[in-house]
Write a structure and sequence with these properties.
- The protein is α+β, with helices and mostly antiparallel strands and 446 residues long.
- It is built from 19 helices and 6 strands.
- The model has no long low-confidence stretch (mean pLDDT 83).
Length: 446
């Protein structure tokens, strides 16, 4: 984990600060070899960060006429639509209205569009756009033919379109959008009011595909994977995880979860056992090396923080929270995840909802069921008549509606940020008093 932390700090701070690690390491009485390794990793991280920001500058501007690839699903943006095109190896955001909006409203990532327009630099939000590798703005004057993408993109788009269609045919519009978010992280059609409710109740992580989704996909495929020989099982596991990552558009949270799953499968087939913290550190090193701009991704750090909290803080809290044994584990896991995301939540969203603990305890089991049941059920239902679709999707419909209800109720009772912070402080004080003054079992003299 030390190497991962040093690499991230190097990417953020730059290589010119790396030499400060030497006196700090010596003051902490680290071995000279460890100090030298940390300094080298920090210098490497600084070079990665500098190179990544330099590559985020546009190389080709001006008029363009030809094919452009959609690298993300067009998403609603106010009254319009934001589409991200890849043109000559660079990404540009385009804001579409009217007929252009209708032209691409149902298109998906991986498809090619014949365009004519002008590329220019972004005047606002350039830094945050660069985190998505977007280097400028594209203003189209013509949007013409659309071609399908690669075989993998076509397969992923068929699954996403089928799941979305089944959900819209069997659920209310808000629940259908939430179902797509829970199963494959497709939250583009969620209304702003629903997004605010999930953020305000501390449940927004449910619509971001994470380790829980990857674990459920592997669990659903486990009966088939068990029949394979070890190395064939490893290859099938890696391929399945890679396909699911493509299906969910390689979001930062699913990248973290997918790489950790691949590393765990590799350790298992080699006959070794790696701790979750070590897997997390290796995943951070691999992902930040491949894409240093992930260091500035809020979704990446929410995923990393929650995972670290669950793996490190959760087990520690399990024996230190009050309540019956059946409640301690979910409470410890939820509290650990909340502690892990305190810093990014407060810095970015300026709050840590106090209702997040009961809301997660109530919503996560139902959301987990929807994640596990929804993907295979939705794919099967897509090939059946509408009457059977209603029957097969009924459990997922009930589970999705329950999660939505918990989010809306939690958001309704969530106090203002100042009172929320006061409630967290009172809760922490109450726990400390309980822990300090609880009755200890009497020691039996030997």
């Amino acid at each position: 984990m030390l190497i991962a932390i040093v690499l991230v700090v190097g990417v953020c701070a730059g290589s010119k600060w790396a030499l400060l690690g030497a006196p700090i390491g010596l003051l902490w009485r680290l071995r000279a070899a460890t100090v030298a390794c940390c300094v080298a990793v920090a210098v490497f991280g600084g070079w990665l960060g500098t190179h990544a920001w330099e590559s985020a500058r546009p190389r080709h501007l001006g008029e363009y006429r030809g094919w452009a690839e959609l690298v993300a699903d067009p998403a609603p943006f106010g009254q319009g639509l934001r589409a991200t095109f890849e043109i000559e190896g660079e990404r540009f955001d385009a804001w579409l209205y009217g007929g252009q909006r209708r032209k691409l409203a149902d298109r998906q990532a991986g498809e090619f569009v014949w365009v004519q327009g002008r590329r220019s630099e972004l005047t606002t939000g350039a830094r945050w756009a660069a985190v998505r590798h977007v280097v400028g703005r594209f203003t189209p004057t013509v949007l013409a033919d659309v071609l399908a993408g690669s075989a993998l993109d076509q397969a992923s788009n068929r699954v996403r379109r089928s799941l979305r269609g089944v959900a819209e045919a069997t659920m209310a519009s808000d629940d259908a959008a939430l179902f797509s978010g829970l199963v494959i992280g497709d939250d583009a059609r969620q209304r702003p009011e629903v997004i605010d409710a999930f953020r305000g109740s501390g449940l927004s992580h449910l619509t971001a595909v994470s380790g829980q989704n990857v674990a459920f996909v592997l669990a659903a495929a486990l009966p088939l994977l068990r029949r394979l020989r070890p190395w064939w099982r490893w290859a099938a596991t890696v391929a399945l995880v890679a396909w699911f990552m493509a299906l969910t558009r390689f979001e930062p949270s699913v990248l973290r979860a997918g790489v950790m799953a691949m590393l765990a499968a590799t350790a298992f087939v080699r006959g070794t056992q790696a701790s979750p913290v070590r897997l997390l550190a290796l995943a951070i090193i691999a992902l930040v090396t491949l894409d240093p701009l992930l260091v500035w991704s809020v979704g990446f750090w929410l995923s990393v923080g929650a995972t670290a909290g669950v793996c490190v803080v959760g087990p520690w809290l399990r024996e230190r929270v009050p309540g019956p044994p059946w409640l301690r584990l979910p409470m410890a896991v939820t509290l650990g995840a909340q502690i892990g995301v305190v810093l990014p939540s407060v810095l970015v969203f300026h709050r840590l909802p106090v209702v997040s603990l009961p809301a997660n305890l109530l919503a996560v089991p139902a959301a987990g069921f929807v994640m596990l049941y929804g993907l295979p059920a939705g794919m099967v239902a897509a090939a059946l008549p509408s009457a059977l679709q209603q029957v097969i999707m009924l459990p997922a419909k009930w589970g999705t509606h329950w999660v939505s209800l918990v989010a809306r109720l939690g958001f309704a009772v969530e106090p203002a940020p100042m009172w929320s912070a006061a409630c967290w402080s009172i809760g922490l004080l109450a726990w400390f008093c309980w822990w300090h003054f609880r009755p200890h079992p009497a020691r039996v003299p030997i």
